[in-house]
Amino acid sequence: MKETLISVGIDLGTSTTQIIFSKLSVENLASAYAVPDIKITGREIIYESKIYFTPLLSKTEIDGEGIKKIVSDEYRKAGIKPEDVKTGAVIITGETARKENAAVILETLSNFAGEFVVSTAGPDLESVLSGFGSGAASISENEKSVIVNVDIGGGTSNISVFKNGNIQDVCCLDVGGRLIKVDSASGKITYIYSKFKDLLDKAGVYLPEDSYAIVSSLKFVTDKMADILACALGLADVEMSDAAFNTTLADRGFYTNDGKGLNCRKSLKIDGITFSGGVGTILYEILSGKQFSDNIFEYGDIGVLLALSIFESPYFSKLNIRIPKETIRATVIGAGMYTTEISGSTILYSMEALPLKNVPVLFVNEEETSKINEVLQKNLSFYANQQTFNPVAISLDGFLSVDYDSIQLLAKKIMDGAGVLIQNRLPLIIVLQNDIAKALGFALRSILPENYPLVCIDSIRAKNGDYIDIGMPVAGNQVLPVVIKTLVFNS
Description:
The protein is an alpha/beta fold and about 500 residues long. It is built from 13 helices and 24 strands. Helix 10 (about 370-380) packs parallel to helix 11 (about 405-415). The model is unreliable at about 240-250 (pLDDT under 50).
C-alpha cells in the first residue's frame, strides 16, 4: 500500500515570499501479517515559485490582497487546485511576523490553500524547518556528526543544532539583513530596527533615518551582528568591549520574543556549519569569489555587509563551513516537506471530530500521570476564553504501562479530570508517545457518553506551548496526518 499526498509550503518572510509544492509518499513498511508501520517514505519537490518581495501596505501592515494574488497565481501556474492539496503549512517569519495583521493573513491563507494546510508562526519552529529544509539534518545524519545551521533572513537568524540527524537545540535572534534598510538609488537610510537604534545611540554612532548611509558605520553594526551570532554559538565570549555591547547576550535582548539561548552552547562542539536564508545565500556567493563593491546596497539593506562581516569574522573562519543543499529556499522547503508527521496506526478516532486545527496542548509529564485527574482539573481552566472552553489536546509523556488494569485506571482518571471538556461536549483529544492509543481509546469510549467525539493517537510527542493540527485519515484510514507547531508571533 502506497499513497501520495500533495503538500504545499508557503513562507511569508521579511524580504521574500515563496511557495513550493511537493509530493509526500506514505507507505506501510510492515509485513502482511504484522501491525501496520506507516511512514512518510519519500519527499519530492514538484514545483517552485519564483521569489517575490513580500508586499506591504505600510511598515506595520502586510498587503493581504497582494499576498493572496501571489498564491493564487502560483497555484494556477503549478496546475494545482486547493482541493488537490492534502497537507502543508503557511509559515510567517522574521519581521513579517511582527506586522499588525499577521495572524489574520496567516489564517486566511491557511483556509484558502487547501484542506489541511496549517498556519504557523514562531521562531523555534522556523529554526527546525530551516535546518531540515537546508539539508543540515541530512548531512548530520549521513556523517554521524554535529551540524549547525544558521538561517539568516531579513529580520531574524534561526539557529538549529543537529546531532546524528536529530534536532538537539534551537534559538532565534533579532539579527538580519533588513533590520536596516537603505534606498539603493539615493543611498539614504529608510529604516532602522528599534533595538539597533538604541545600541547605536549608546555607542555614539550617528545614523538617523533619512541620512546618507556611511558604509563604515553600518559595517560597525554588521560586525556586531556577526559577534552576536558567534556568542550565541559559544564561539566568542559573551562580553563585548564596546560600551553599547558590554552586557551579556541575553541582557542585550537580542533573542527573539525574549527567548533563550542554546542550552548546549557552552559544551557545543561543532563538526560543521551551514548557512541558509537570503544572507546565507550572499555569504556563499562571497565564498565563491563574487564581489559586491559596485553597489553594496543593491538589495536595499545591509544584507551584503552582514554576509561580509560573517565572512571576515575570526570566529566563523575557524569553522568547517559546509555547502547546504538549499539556502534561500530552506524555510519554505521545510514548511512544505517536513511539517507533517504521521500518527501511529494503533489509534482510535471519531470521524466527525476531524479535522482539528490550532488546538493548544496541555502536557502531562511522566511523573504527573499517576495524578492526571488532579493535573487536568487544575490546568484546563487556563484554556477558557471568557468562560467559554475550547478544545484542548492532552499530551501524555513517556512510555506508559500497557496492562489492562493500568489502562482502565488511566481512562477513569482522564474522565474525572476532563469533566469540563465533556460537559461542554468538546472533542476529547489524547496524544500519546507510545502505542497504546487504541487500547486507551476503547477504555475511554466505554465510559464516555454515547457517540462522544474522541481522538486518541500515538507515536506523537507534544509539549506545553505547542499547538496540534490533526487531519483527515490517510493510508486506507489507518493513520492521521499531524502537525505540531507554534503560533507565537514575533514581538
